[in-house]
Automatic annotation (TrEMBL):
GO terms for biological process: proteolysis. Keywords: Hydrolase, Protease. GO terms for molecular function: peptidase activity. This is Zn-dependent protease. Residues 65-256 form the DUF2268 domain.
Amino acid sequence: MSVIRTDKWLLDLYDRPVELCEKLTAYFEDVYAPEIYNHLISHGMYRYPLKNGKEFVRQLQDNKVWELVQKEKRQLQKLWEGPSIPIFIFPSDPNNRKMKQEHNGKSGLAFNDKLFLFISKDNTEKEIKALFTHEYNHVCRLTSYSKKEEDYVLLDTIILEGLAENAVRERFGEKFVAGWTTYYSEDQLKELWNGLVLPNKNTLKMERKHQDILYGLRRYPKMIGYCIGYYLVTNYMKTNKLTSKELLEIKSDTIAQV
């Protein structure tokens, strides 16, 4: 599989997104189109109605976004010996203020057998490459690591995120890593790791606290799970002089050494 030409889907069904998501039911097990659409919306996909939607799709076509991602997919699949999966590109939600402020309107969603990119009109070619790198690294970790995703605990999730953003750093440099990587100083990260994240490292994915710490919701510091994951993986990579590819199969507990 490769990059699916969702541009053609969008030009036909842009104003009927649930019908558009009917085309995705073949890639999910026992899930209906409205559920798929709601799930994708929660991760950044556009909400209908959206002004000048088809015009934006044509703009993405003119910028050869589908071809760009296909080329990146070939490169990274070879570099990381990753799986061949279907990749879906859709416009992102321009009314999602948080996504716009923190991620310049782009987002992604990765499974072990498929990947979604949600792109805004403001994203540059380098930003799209960085986004794809992050999400495809997730796919490679999920398929390479011996632990099943349903058994992941908080430590596994933050390492997953740290690996993906370090893959971006490795390929494109500090300039293109996410803004949240700079939220805290090293001393703050060390303190937050020992005082907050480490005591909760075995929190299961199904528990509310897992998401709260990961994203820094409620009383927790903003994006703290992501930030700690990036901090742990960066230290491990630099200390052991390892590449992103070499980390894909290493246990989370091994990487989490500070």
